[in-house]
Design brief:
Blueprint lengths: L3 H10 L4 H16 L6 H7 L4 H7 L3 H20 L8 H16 L3 H10 L4 H21 L6 H23 L7 H18 L2 H4 L2 H7 L1
Helix pairs in contact: 2-3, 2-7, 5-6, 5-8, 6-10, 8-9, 9-10
Length: about 210
């Protein structure tokens, strides 16, 4: 049983915000032992929260993952603010997707573990599919590409295929500069360029104005 001093030292190292602590605890467990080990009671104990406090924030493990996806969305959007609106749609998408992978980098082991386990948990898989769809819309928006209407829905689906493939490559990329991931993403975007549409059809009015 940990001593009061050990508990105090560990507690001071934890994020102060309960929500952040819960998400961080779940990701640590997933990275170290696999997502299946991240039970609700284990997450609560790791975050030094009561089960009641954890349930008040996250009614399920799936809800916790959805919150994590939202955190990554915000991290991506902050990084993608530097994407040049005057670049081609393909180059803008490249910059945005790499910004997302940069936001995910500290959690690569956890993300890989979750990706392997989620298909075996229908509720978790469904929640992640919906959260990822929202993320894809934000990726297109950050790249100045329309994501509404029928054409937008098709672009979201196409980008989903590209991102899933790139995420797989990223999870296996041990290079320090992510060169293998970037090469893979560049190839995927080149192949999908016709599907995503030509410049004048997919750029939003905001992006066109930026280039003018």
């Amino acid at each position: 049983m940990p001593t009061a001093r050990k508990r105090s030292r560990r507690q001071s190292a934890l994020p102060r915000d309960d929500r952040t602590r819960a998400v961080a605890a779940a990701l640590r467990i997933a990275a170290d032992e696999g997502w299946n080990a991240a039970s609700l009671d284990r997450i609560a104990a790791e975050a030094e929260l009561s089960l009641e406090a954890l349930q008040a924030m996250f009614p399920s493990r799936a809800a916790l993952l959805v919150a994590f996806v939202g955190d990554i969305d915000r991290g991506m959007l902050a990084r993608a603010a530097d994407v040049d609106g005057g670049d081609s749609p393909r180059d803008r998408l490249f910059g945005v997707l790499m910004a997302r992978l940069d936001a995910l980098r500290p959690y690569r082991n956890a993300v890989t573990s979750i990706a392997r386990a989620a298909p075996l948990e229908p509720a978790t898989a469904c929640a992640l599919v919906m959260a990822t769809r929202r993320s894809l819309a934000w990726m297109l928006a950050a790249a100045g590409i329309s994501h509404t209407g029928i054409d937008g829905a098709l672009r979201i689906k196409g980008l989903g295929v590209i991102f899933a493939s790139t995420l797989w490559a990223w999870s296996r990329d041990d290079s320090e500069d992510s060169s293998a991931t970037m090469a893979h993403l560049d190839r995927q975007l080149l192949r999908a360029e016709k599907f995503l549409g030509v410049l004048q059809n997919i750029a939003t009015p905001h992006a066109r104005t930026a280039r003018a």
